[in-house]
Amino acid sequence: MFSDLPRNAGEPVFRAPWEAKAFAMAVELHARGLFTWPEWAQTLSKAIREAQADGDPDCGDSYYHHWLAALETMVVTRAVATTESLARRREAWHRAAAATPHGESIELGRDGTPVPPA
User: Fold this and answer.
1) C-alpha distances out from residue 2 to 30, 45, 50, 80, 93, Å
2) Is the distance from CB of 106 to CB of 93 less than 8 angstroms?
């Protein structure tokens, strides 16, 4: 099972840098007391169940998409951010990505549109 997962010395690793960043954000938000690990596990489990109900084949490649969905749920339910501010930030990211030449780092606002704080 999950034989296609990237590995280093036999251990699974992140597929992309954003996955590692999402993982680190959850660890940091927990360290700051935003949620307990049992709360996190419950929220992540719910995100995975909802994705599976919507047709996610659960092959392992979408795991950190569920992780990110759980993070967004946590910051919204804990009033750290709003759904609207997350949507604005996501749109700013997509605009910046589209304006970034291949191989360069994506920077918010690169498209010339000011990006308010999250």
Assistant:
1) 28, 18, 20, 34, 30
2) yes
